[in-house]
Amino acid sequence: MRIKRASAQTLHLENGWNVLDASGGAAVTGIGHLNARVEQAMIKTLQSGLSYVSSMMFDTDITETFARFLVNTTDGKMSKAVFYSSGKSLHTASRTKLTAAGGTEANEAAFKLALQYHATEKANPEPTRKFFIARDRSYHGTTLGTLDMGGHKARRELWEKVLPNNTRSHVSPCYAYRGLRIGETKAQYVTRLANELETEIQRLGPQNVAAFICEPVVGAVSRLLFKTFVQSRGVVKHGCSASNATNCALITSQHHTSPNADFTCRLWVASPLKPGILQP
Ligand SMILES: Cc1ncc(COP(=O)(O)O)c(C=O)c1O
Predict the structure, then answer these.
(1) Residue in 187, 52, 201 with CA at minimum distance from that of residue 133
(2) pTM reported for the whole predicted model
(3) Tell me: the pLDDT tens digits for 184-196?
(4) Ligand 1 lined by 214 (C-beta under 6 Å)
(5) Which domains occur in the chain, in start order?
(6) What is the per-residue pLDDT for 49?
């Protein structure tokens, strides 16, 4: 189906059909098509005389302003926003931001950042921390690092032999609708999943675990958006304390809870979570 144009919530196909785009975009930017404010902002930026500069060397007011907006809307939870491209590692830690790309690259960067943090950035470096724990059926992207973290078997299958194999555990997805046992309460379910995570950290050896990565609100592969947030928040909260207790990093991937997808700026800001690394 070839789309000729799109406006607001409608996709106009070349065969004359009009299709309702109920998400108004792909999850993250649910703002509809031909949004006049976005259009004007893009035009204004282009007319300001600056369309693009390499992020390796230069800063611009636009990206700096956006980075500050992201940081300032987190009630002090976030200290730095780093916009990544090509999964670069954080050799420029003193800067507020770099230039942006997609979710895959952000997660690839988070993967490297967690390793780099343990190996070189802490007062007492722990280079042994190189294993990741993720969730079964999770999706974190399509580079080798992010496929390795992801627990979506069909998407990993073809590349299995060349994946870095740093992700040694895929714990249960947080999905009470399918995962709740007969007679189990939601609170017991949350405790069971939290215990599973802690058991995995202990099994791998806390000194070997770099990070636990998860989507607090799963949207990528299981269509669980919103439904599981409450339970997931409980598990991630336990993940937070498990991470704190064992000094492994907590990476939250918020792909589906960005502005306008959850109707607030970022759902996690309103929660008790304070992830070490956040992929918005
Ligand atoms: C949770 C999650 N992480 C990562 C990605 C990858 O993002 P991108 O397609 O922008 O590389 C997606 C894409 O759907 C996603 O849903």
Answers:
(1) 201
(2) 0.79
(3) 998 898 889 888 9
(4) no
(5) 3-47 (no CATH), 102-279 (3.40.640.10)
(6) 87
